[in-house]
């Protein structure tokens, strides 16, 4: 007769284990050092928890992923800090994880640890609105807040406005983003990609890690440095359009260009 708590008859050692558990009382732990236990756990989790319990696709988000995890989960780039360097590094991380086959990726906007600043959070809201996984997230210790809506109440409406306008553009682009994720699922494409993916014959694109693209159409050139008033961007030889709050215009020049800080969202070209 099978033990109803161990229907697959996984080996049980009954060795004593010591440690704190919550809630207190008798408890059992699967022995994940055994391959049989690992396989049992994976099969039960995948088929029972994700499918049978809810009848819907499960939402899984992890920071402990590996190549091919993207078929099951998204990835956030860990407990970062409210630093300009961490914001810049998130662009590289986003590009890397798309290459790893995990396109649903993003960093904690404005930083998870430490206290952010209005200038940093403004730029991060502009950038983070275009992470595939876009989330403003902080540990909350010490009472520090960085919710986009709060900044207008504490004397920094420019942060709230940047978040609002950037997210508005994101929502306008959501149908395109959904299409990119469908192609990622069916064809294995990247969602966010480096510029050289679309312009592989242009050597000027090979070292670009401060700009990124959504698919083959949208190019982002965010502000990533403190006190930065213009972006030294590169527009490959192509036809580019520049959207603003009220209109779209044809860009007359390609190559290396300087983009001024005139928009409430990051510089975008299509």
What does this structure look like?
This protein is α/β, with parallel strands linked by helices. It has two domains: 17-58, no CATH class; 61-269, Glycosidases (TIM Barrel). The protein contains five helices and 13 strands. The strands form five sheets. It has a four-stranded antiparallel sheet with strand order 6-7-8-13. The longest helix has 31 residues, at 157-187. The termini are far apart. Residues 188-243 form the Glycosyl hydrolase family 31 C-terminal domain. Belongs to the glycosyl hydrolase 31 family.
Termini gap: 66 Å
| Overall average pLDDT | 87
Strand order of the largest sheet: 6-7-8-13
**Poorly predicted segments:** none
- The second-level CATH architecture of the largest domain is Alpha-Beta Barrel
CATH 4th-level superfamily of the largest domain: Glycosidases
* Protein structure class: alpha/beta
Please tell me how large the radius of gyration is.
23 Å
Please work out how many helical segments DSSP would assign: 5
Shape: globular
Percentage of residues in helical conformation: 25-40%
The biggest beta sheet is recorded as: 4 strands, antiparallel
């Amino acid at each position: 007769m099978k033990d109803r708590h161990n229907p697959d008859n996984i080996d049980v050692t009954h060795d004593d284990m010591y440690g704190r558990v919550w809630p207190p009382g008798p408890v059992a732990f699967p022995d994940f050092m055994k391959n049989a236990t690992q396989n049992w756990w994976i099969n039960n989790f995948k088929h029972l928890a994700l499918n049978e319990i809810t009848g819907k696709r499960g939402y899984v988000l992890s920071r402990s992923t590996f190549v091919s995890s993207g078929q099951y989960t998204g990835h956030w780039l860990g407990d970062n800090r409210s630093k300009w360097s961490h914001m810049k590094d998130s662009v590289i991380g986003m590009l890397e994880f798309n290459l790893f086959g995990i396109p649903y990726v993003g960093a904690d906007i404005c930083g998870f640890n430490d206290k952010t600043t209005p200038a940093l959070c403004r730029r991060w809201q502009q950038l983070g609105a275009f992470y595939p996984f876009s989330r403003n997230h902080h540990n909350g210790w010490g009472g520090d807040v960085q919710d986009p809506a709060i900044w207008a109440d504490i004397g920094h409406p420019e942060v709230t406005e940047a978040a609002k306008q950037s997210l508005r553009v994101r929502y306008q682009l959501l149908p395109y983003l959904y299409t990119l994720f469908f192609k990622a699922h069916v064809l294995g494409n990247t969602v966010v990609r480096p510029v050289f993916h679309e312009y592989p014959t242009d050597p000027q694109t090979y070292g670009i890690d401060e700009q990124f693209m959504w698919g083959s159409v949208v190019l982002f050139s965010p502000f990533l440095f403190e006190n930065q008033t213009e972006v030294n961007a590169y527009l490959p030889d192509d036809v580019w359009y520049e959207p603003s709050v009220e209109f779209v215009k044809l860009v007359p020049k390609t190559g290396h260009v300087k983009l001024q800080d005139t928009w409430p969202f990051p510089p975008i070209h299509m």
